[in-house]
Specification:
The protein has about 350 residues and is an alpha/beta fold. Helices cover about 40% and strands about 20% of the residues. Strand 8 and strand 9 form a beta hairpin. Helix 6 packs parallel to helix 8 and helix 8 packs parallel to helix 10. The longest helix has 25 residues. The protein is globular.
Amino acid sequence: MRQLAINIVRYNQEFSLLERSIQAALNQDLDNFEVVLTENGSSDSIKGSVLERFGGDPRFRYAENAANLGFAGGHNRFIHTADAEFVLPLNPDTQLTPEYARTVLVVFSDPFVAAAEGKMLKPVPLPDGRYILDGTGMCLSRARRAGERGQLQIDDRQFDDNTNVFGVSATAAIYRTSALERIKHGEAEYFDEDLFTYWEDLDLAWRLRLAGFECRYVPGAIVYHSRSANQSRDGFTRIGAFIANTRSLSLRVVQWDWRNHLLTIIKNDFGSSLLRDLPRIALRELAVLAYLCVVRPQILLAVPEFFRLLPRILRKRKLVQGSRAVSSRQMGQWFEGARR
């Protein structure tokens, strides 16, 4: 069994982008790991270029899915077949530093840690040499607004404490395979495939916490991430920039973002903390939908999708809630303490 298996799912990304990501993954200073590139139904093929560049490395493997299975399905197929103690689903627009995996893996000496990630930075430094943060772990507000701690702030070491976080981003998170086996749906649904892409990592983090596991942020491990869909830097305080950011995103991204975030809350939230915060949650969700109807009215096309998926999400909710190992009060502390 390998210590770590890394998977990069490709959907129409250029070879030059993938080449950098694959090479950085292969540069990890570990002895027992593999790197997989999974082709996920792209409209073109780069198999020849990939195998010419990396096919001679025994640590590299190329795999193909017959169709686009989304982020969730593409990584699920990999996790199910990976013979490794830990797995790392890796975004194609990332570059790991050589010590990334080794540094993150240290925290798994605690058997309750099921997932961990390092500090994500934008790849281009500022003129003074500092970097912009891309994320330092997931948090959730009492209104259940989810996001990355510190995203788009200048990194002044304000997030340099090794700490537990609500969840980790699947951009470059390492997961304990045995923990994923504990909370999966069915035979091999680790990430929820009904979500397809966007917020499937929030759902997974929530399920891990409900099962009693911990998620850890490790600031000494650095990964550079471009991220094509960012939040607006100043939120609603600069409404013009906020609207421009929303309109810059593809319609499908906006639809997935709204639909999946709400489905994740419905599937995982429960108890007294949910009842306490329900007015905030409802107000925020109504405000978000109203805002999107004005700025991107095509969001309404996602409403039938939402109701089509809802019965399946409710069936999964029954399974998740039936096996949870924590109280609503324990979960509620994460929402009370959430800070952006």
